[in-house]
Amino acid sequence: MRFVHLVCAASIALSGLGSPAVAQEETVLAPEWSAYLERFVDEQGRVIDDGNGGISHSEGQGYGLTLAFLAGDQATFERIWSFTRTELMLRDDGLAAWKWSPDADPHVTDINNATDGDMLIAYALAQAGEAWRREDFTQAATALAEAIGTLAYTQDGRLTLPPAREGYGRDERPDGPVINPSYWIYEAFPVLARLAPDTDWQAISDGGLETLRASLTGPRALPPEWLSIATTERPAQGFAAEFGYNAVRIPLYMVRAGAGDEALLTALADGMSDPDGSVALVDLESGETRETLADAGYRIIPALVACAVSGTPVPDDLRSFEPTLYYPSTLHLLALSHLRQARPECLS
């Protein structure tokens, strides 16, 4: 059964680029956003990954822009975009450098891009450009979407995207090409399609779901974080064969976009959940839990799936936000935002 497509208020605002702006529903609440800002966003607009040595990266800047938009905070959006534009948009191809370290000189310690970070930034800029009538944001989003589109390639009849421009291609690895299934920002694809129509974003979205289904493996039927698609889908060489930190956000992205089907979402949520309600990082071959994640920002993801599939109310302890670490805190706010906009019955 195909999910009815559910879009956030930001996507509704983008019903046509260049159309009049519509009222924005702020689905990240002011106290939550204030707590997030105090903990993870500095005065420059740098989003700090405090679980990863205090670095910043294009993913974090994209998440920060998205949450600022969902909170209706135009001033902070400007600040985050200013840092992103001046500190990360340094590549000749229009993509963002992915890694910035406060202790290094120069601060960019890896100039390679991260495709999910690029998509998150473009998506947030497009939403803000439309809702706030900022043509400069829309132009920046368009340029970035067009640059991302140049990365697309066909493998076994599916249009796909690499995790980065360098390092994962057919000729760069013995098991190449390699992809990361958690880099598919499904809710962004309709927006990217309007920005950069020369790329078949629907085919990229559909191919991502087909590849995800084909990649489920092991006793718990979960996808590997890094996936070789050279022949059959299998864990990529040189990476742990596990369902890891990146992969836990796949169901979140799917639910926020209304992508996939109930069977796939249920399989992912069941496979990643331990009996005590925590989320597991899983060894794919044995099915054993390698690490237990008890943070609310992780545990809300299976709860979000249960809401989307069967209308199950979200447990009370997951309905309020308190910041912990950057990554689960970000996931928590994205999940709560979607629930408020599209599934309020699961919060009552």
From TrEMBL:
Keyword Kinase in annotation: no
Catalyzed reactions per annotation: Endohydrolysis of (1->4)-beta-D-glucosidic linkages in cellulose, lichenin and cereal beta-D-glucans
Pfam families documented for this protein: Glyco_hydro_8
Signal peptide as annotated in the record: 1-23
Listed EC numbers: 3.2.1.4
GO MF term set: hydrolase activity
The entry's keywords: Carbohydrate metabolism, Cellulose degradation, Glycosidase, Hydrolase, Polysaccharide degradation, Signal
Enzyme class: hydrolase
Keyword Signal: yes
Family designation: Belongs to the glycosyl hydrolase 8 (cellulase D) family.
Name of the featured protein: cellulase
Source organism of the structure: Aureimonas populi
Lineage, top ranks: Bacteria, Pseudomonadati, Pseudomonadota, Alphaproteobacteria, Hyphomicrobiales
